[in-house]
Design brief:
single chain, Alpha-Beta Plaits, about 30% helix
Length: about 90
């Protein structure tokens, strides 16, 4: 298991990005959460198998149809336990 923190910038709030991320994470068996940040970015904490995380990160880089992803910063993180992947407010 591996954990990552992902910071996504661009036009990523108000375009369904968090719900897109949640759907993809659940399809790939990834646990954690996604939330909007006050500075306009989206923050994702994701835990999963290496291969699933790589697919997840690749999909996040594309984003949903209305999003414009300008930058994705991925940092390794400490593995924490989550029951599922969810949207945090």
């Amino acid at each position: 298991m591996r954990a990552v923190e992902i910071y996504v910038s661009g036009i990523v709030q108000g375009v369904g990005f968090r719900y897109f991320t949640t759907r993809i994470a659940r399809e790939l068996g990834i646990k954690g959460f996604v939330k909007n940040l006050p500075d306009g970015r989206v923050y994702i904490y994701a835990v999963g198998e290496e291969e699933s995380l790589e697919k997840f990160i690749s999909t996040v880089r594309q984003g949903p149809p209305l999003a414009v992803v300008r930058d994705v910063e991925v940092r390794n993180a400490e593995v924490r336990e989550f029951e599922r992947f969810e949207v945090k407010r």
